[in-house]
Design goal:
The chain has 24 helices and five strands. The protein has 634 residues and is mainly α. Mean pLDDT is 87; it is low at 1-46 and 277-283.
Length: 634
């Protein structure tokens, strides 16, 4: 018998018992801890100190047990199909269906006998319940954002109603549909005729323009379906549809003009419709320009939203605590930056040393080869220090893609994942813009970012997350994703990867940048700073090029990131760094075992990673309590 498959069947059997009965007794958990350990021993050639099972070739094996796994897997599929059925994110029907769905899932979870669960089961119970509660709260936050847009696009309900009726396969009355389009045409022209007073901020105008693009795509989808199959539909509606689409295009242009955004070509067709249940395109197709003086797509989230986000991410600190931590880390960076500046002969004028580093860039067109070579260098260094198990395929299945000038407006630096998106000057850019791209992605700045984005950073994270504890996908957190990627930069510093003062300044620039992200993003969401003040802070305190600072602020506040996302880089890294001290520096685990264990556990709040590693018993109403940083006051 295949023992791995046998284990999987045991997991499924136990999980189905929970789903079917809603309860599980102490004796109802099939298979004791001892029996599970015996089964795992049959699969693996060895078990390392991390508790990871390994095959004969050294690769990791996931034979863990969690009674909640079938419930969570079913939830993911059901939610995917719900959003596929109701793809327009601002649909009131979708909101009602989602709220009822999350409430039903919470009822199922609350029916589980928590005390009878295994350690992994308790962990997943806690994560799943917190996730469901957070999802319900997010619906309210989405309402707030949608209400802002609806003031500028008050006619969106007619598109939702038409498309949802089509998906319900209701019999269409072509003549009645023409009346709907006729009425909507009046509403669209009215909305395009005037803007609210006072004029909305540029970021909100851009979000409203993106909403119109989504509406145009959905209406095109609706029209093309019936236009193909129903000759009577075309007779009544084809011309009206084209008028409505043209009117929405005109409204979009009014909004873009008011926001100071470059207009698309005249006569551009309606975009393809891709609802949130069917994939998604670029986060922000229309981006406010520098001259607008308003780079935020959303307003401040407020303190309550920050506190809720920290609770959900299992971080036992207040927003004010996080700013204090960032300032302490900034002080360390300042000291190290001055040390490197002195080594280069610039004394206390660290910005002159930074300028020297910025001007060490490769010729246009050579960036792709620099990225290739820097990734190879990082992998060889990590292998020499036996830091983490790197599957052969993860070192090969990546490549580079170019980031367009439009994308670089909101993402001036590299992005990573399946591939690495390389910021490089394009011939369509002005000369000054090209120089800022080269200087902002110079040889020393890119050195740490390459392995942050690729291996063992985001690319390897994606690789491992698709192979181990895949069912934990709903619980992912930026503190794990971004925090781990930045943690690698901190660890490589400790191991001596950054040798020259120029290389150390390159690393310190990003470390200061991550401190600044905490400070400017929290101050913005607490209502204390404007977006422009955030830009000025990045230029003055970190040494950013202006265009790159503006791109960073646009990206932070364009609307698709949770309010504490930018905090997650530094704070997640500090959490992993604290775990490294607790388990590796203390001699409990090797570097390789420790890093393999956190990859194997899956993407989840880092306090829960610690609970898993330290075998901490998770209680039913678990609250964040890990003070990973120590004293935060001088």
């Amino acid at each position: 018998m295949n023992t791995v498959n046998s284990n999987r069947r045991d997991v499924l059997k136990n999980g189905l018992a929970i789903l079917g009965a809603g309860l599980i007794s102490g004796e109802g958990v099939l298979g004791s801890e001892t029996q599970s350990a015996q089964k795992r021993g049959q699969v693996a050639e060895s078990k390392s100190a991390c508790g990871c099972d390994r095959a004969a070739d050294g690769s990791l094996l996931d034979v863990s047990f969690s009674e909640l796994r079938p419930m969570i897997e079913r939830y993911q599929v059901d939610l995917r199909d719900l959003y596929r059925t109701y793809p327009l994110s601002f649909s009131l029907t979708r909101k009602a269906k989602a709220d009822a769905f999350f409430a039903g899932q919470l009822k199922l979870v609350d029916g589980v006998n928590f005390d009878a669960l295994s350690a992994d089961g308790r962990l997943d119970f806690t994560l799943f319940r917190s996730h469901l509660e957070h999802q319900r709260k997010q619906l309210g936050d989405d309402d707030r954002k949608n209400a802002e847009v609806e003031q500028l696009v008050p006619y969106q309900a007619f598109v939702v109603n038409l498309e949802e009726a089509r998906r319900r396969m209701e019999t269409l009355d072509a003549q009645k549909a023409s009346l709907v389009l006729t009425s909507a045409l009046v509403d669209i022209k009215k909305a395009a005729g005037s803007l609210p007073n006072p004029r909305p901020r540029a970021g909100l105008l851009a979000r409203a323009a993106n909403r119109i693009n989504e509406l145009r795509g959905a209406l095109r989808w609706w029209h093309d379906f019936y236009n193909l199959y129903d000759p009577e539909f075309a007779w009544w509606n084809d011309n009206l549809y084209r008028q409505a689409d043209a009117a929405m295009d005109q409204h979009l242009r009014v909004l873009l003009t008011a926001a100071g955004i470059k207009l698309p070509a005249e006569g551009a067709p309606a975009p393809e419709f891709r609802g949130s249940g069917e994939g998604r395109g670029p986060r922000n197709e229309f981006t406010p320009p520098t001259e607008s003086g308003d780079l935020a797509g959303v307003g401040p989230a407020g303190r309550d939203a920050l506190v809720e986000a920290l609770r959900y991410n299992v971080v036992a600190y207040t927003p004010e605590d996080l700013v204090a931590i960032a300032n302490k880390e900034f002080a360390w960076c300042d000291k190290e930056m001055l040390r490197a500046s002195h080594e280069l002969g610039f004394g206390d004028d660290w910005k002159k040393a930074l300028e020297k580093v910025k001007n060490d860039y490769v010729a246009p067109g050579k960036m792709i080869y620099l990225v290739r070579d820097q990734q190879k260098e990082a992998i060889e260094f990590m292998q020499a220090h036996d830091i983490v198990t790197m599957p052969a395929l993860v070192r090969e299945d990546w490549w580079e893609e170019a980031m367009t000038p439009q994308m670089q407006l909101a993402s001036p630096f590299f992005l990573g994942g399946d591939v690495i998106m390389v910021s490089s000057p394009a011939s369509t850019m002005a000369i000054q813009e090209r120089l800022e791209v080269l200087r902002g992605n110079n040889t020393n700045f890119s050195r740490g970012i390459v392995f942050h984005e690729l291996v063992p950073g985001h690319h390897m994270q994606g690789y491992m997350s698709q192979r181990y504890h895949v069912y934990r996908t709903p619980f992912h957190t930026a503190f794990w994703t971004e925090g781990m990627a930045f943690y690698w930069e901190m660890l490589m510093w400790d191991l001596g990867y950054d040798r020259t003062p120029e290389q150390r300044i390159g690393v310190l620039f990003w470390r200061m940048h991550r401190c600044a992200r905490i400070i400017f993003s929290l101050n913005f969401h607490l209502g204390q700073w404007t977006a422009q003040k955030c830009v000025d802070f990045l230029i003055d305190r970190v040494g950013h090029e202006r265009a790159n600072a503006e791109g960073e602020v646009r990206r932070s506040f364009e609307g698709s990131y949770e309010p504490i996302y930018q905090c997650a880089y530094m704070l997640g890294a500090l959490q992993f760094y604290a775990l490294h001290k607790e388990f590796v520096v203390a001699g409990k685990m090797t570097n390789r075992d420790f890093h393999d264990a956190i990859f194997l556990a899956g993407n989840m709040p880092i306090e829960m990673v610690r609970a898993s590693l330290a075998k901490i018993t998770v209680v039913r109403d678990y609250q964040p309590n890990w003070k990973f940083y120590g004293p935060i006051t001088a």
